[in-house]
């Protein structure tokens, strides 16, 4: 979509943040600068502004609270313009990870936090406590090995077994301190019920069960940050589990059944995931991995 001639070909991340009202925020990153998009609930352009980033980080996702945008700049940074794209990036762990928090009402109002060097693809929605503390979760790698080697190996039909992402809660205190709280297990695709986007919450939907012997997940679950426990279901070693998304009181997602050589669609009760699917449907074919998106009810 070209909203205005001067905005043609402007970058737009794969993961916009949608407020419960329907308003859409997104980031378009390019080097040390980024374009902040604000769209109306019907997708019309409302406003946009260029901001400066702490470093020219690789960026696939960002997050937001009801009042702030939260941009995590990891130390995998662009040092040139070369093809393939990954040859333009360099891992610089000595720079650490910088978290940029920006006021939605005034993008010039910003503050930064420092975290250890981390690599990530996906973050969960953020929220704020009454005292201004910001919290959000993400699935963090120790470095970009998977991006550099593992992803290309999968495309070539190989598997590079390496370190897997761990579900972790990030806490940004008003006094400038930042802390990491690992959940203690590997996970990807953290999701939150759309009606809670940017609002206080305790649960995170995830897929997990990465065992180091295969590149895909084998389980789906809901993690409770207050109780420190997961309600999850393991599909077993012969199912490849793709992203699951919250839809009302349910979780909906797909798997690839290796024995049946077919894709399957599963629906879970989000309050009793360990009980297994409440409904499943098998396709007549195997669809390409991986489903990665959202369901829209009609």
Q: Percent of residues in helical segments?
A: under 10%
Q: What are the secondary-structure elements, in order, as H or E?
A: EEEEEEEEEEEEEHEEEEEEEEE
Largest sheet: 8 strands, antiparallel
* C-alpha-based Rg, rounded: 19 Å
> What proportion strand?
over 45%
Contiguous uncertain segments of 5+ residues: none
N- to C-terminal distance:
23 Å
**How many DSSP H or I helices?**
1
* Outline type: globular
Strand pairing plus helix content: what structural class?
A: mainly beta
Number of strands: 22
What is the mean predicted local confidence, pLDDT?
A: 92
Notes on the structure:
- With 298 residues, this protein is mostly beta strands.
- Strands 11, 12, 13, 14, 15, 16, 17 and 18 form an 8-stranded antiparallel sheet that branches. Strands 1-2-3-4 form a 4-stranded antiparallel sheet, with no helix packed on it. Strands 5-6-9-10 form a 4-stranded antiparallel sheet, with no helix packed on it.
- Strand 5 and strand 6 form a beta hairpin.
- The radius of gyration is 19 Å and the shape is globular.
- The protein starts with 16 loop residues before the first strand and ends in a 16-residue tail after the last strand.
- The mean pLDDT is 92.
Summarize the structure.
The chain has 1 helix and 22 strands. The protein is mostly beta strands. Strands 11, 12, 13, 14, 15, 16, 17 and 18 form an 8-stranded antiparallel beta sheet that branches. Strands 1-2-3-4 form a 4-stranded antiparallel beta sheet, with no helix packed on it. A 4-stranded antiparallel beta sheet has the order 5-6-9-10, with no helix packed on it.
